[in-house]
Design a protein that fits this description.
By secondary structure, the protein is an alpha/beta fold. The protein contains 4 helices and 11 strands; from the N terminus they run ββαβαβββαβαββββ. The protein has a single domain, classed as 3-Layer(aba) Sandwich (Dihydrofolate Reductase, subunit A), CATH 3.40.430.10. It is globular, with a radius of gyration of 15 Å.
Length: 169
Amino acid sequence: MGKKILYIAASLDGYIAGEDGSVGWLDEVEGDGGDNGYQAFYETIDSLLMGRSTYEKVMELTDDFPYSGKKCYVLSKKLKGQTEHVTFTNEPLQEVLARAEGNVWIVGGGKVVKDCLAYNLLDDVYITVIPKVLGGGIPLFPIGTKADLSLVSAEKIGDMVSIHYKRKD
């Protein structure tokens, strides 16, 4: 059985997107001059899980589905069935993760993160903190989110900080 991994960027004040869902502010920060470790992480992933709003934002930002070749599940009450790259499902989160293959990247958004933490489903949490204060938007951890994590490491990447936590057992 693989790991369930949250790998995400957030503003210094804890938002993953602006009020309107915008993420352009992520491009306004100095990293390591490369991909900031993304490709190395992505190569360890077998499956992805995201909420419908995150899926729709991904599709808005790109012409081609960026995760082709990986099994991708999208939690949605509105969208049903399958496309070439995605399985839409309204099954309980635990059931979807139980059948997902290998290491699963929890892509977002905040409600999916909250539910994963509520059911103690995340093994690793990687948060890259972007030095921007948005003052509002879509929070990484919606009100009521609870978790008990242990710090594994923190790494400076340009102006950002990448923090790795593990679930406390």
